Amino acid sequence: MTCPRIFVSSTFYDLKHVREIIRKFILDQGYEPVLSEFSDVFYNPSDTVQNSCLKEVSNCDLFVLIVGKRYGSPFPGDSLSITHKEYLEAQNVGIPIYSFVDIDVLHDYEFYLKNNRSTAFQFRVVQEKEVFDLIDEVQRASKDNSLIPYSSIDDILQHLKKQWAKLLKSFLVSQKIMTPEKESVLLKGFEEFSEKLSIVGISNVTLEDVTGSSTFIDMIEKIGGTITDNTTDLRIKLNGKTLNIGKQVIDILSQEFKAVKSGT
Questions:
Q1: Which of 43, 61, 141, 176 sits between 20 and 30 A of 116, alpha carbons compared?
Q2: What is the pTM of this model?
Q3: Which pLDDT belongs to residue 178?
Q4: Into how many domains does the chain fold?
Q5: Helices 130-139 and 103-114: crossing angle, nearest 10°?
Q6: Which is nearest to 250 in space by CA: 200, 186, 214?
């Protein structure tokens, strides 16, 4: 098995030195950095450079996005920039994303929001207003939508170091050997949980649905349910049925969900 491949996406000229330092950091961790300027991308002779970069994202295991003052060159035939398209591809393939934004750019973004998204002003550092569209894209994502401000490159490196350590820890926990005793407890807890779900009208939930979800709500969404908050209850549309479940019941089911998860 090869080491993790990490795609670094950003505009080039304004963030050249940042990219070089992140590349060295990735190498020092024993991982493989993928940056276009170092020929880490396979440039298919029968395709465009931009498409080759986009396709390389799907061959990587992690994605690092750096948002600076420039939005970047447009992707051929599209109004979005190359960096923006790379980010969307990372979301599409479902690899972990680590997004960072220059603190001064974030201040400009906050000023932009306070002025009802008007671009009639001269921003302090942002050169292209489309940068704000990319920030919006990151923050409205349904998952992996954290956007970490940085004032120095070290802020980026320290965050990546901690997050990748936690990612490894999560993997190691998931690989713990399941003893027969633990498996028995897990199955019993899941059966009890399933019975309570069936009482409120939720059926056909598997153990894998539970173990593969982070919360009870996440599980409902992963099995195809849609949820509407009606203040005192949640309206859940699932398998052609509409269920109105009180929030106190949801809290109980969430606790039961956590109990089953703790047995894995």
A1: 141
A2: 0.69
A3: 66
A4: 2
A5: 90
A6: 200
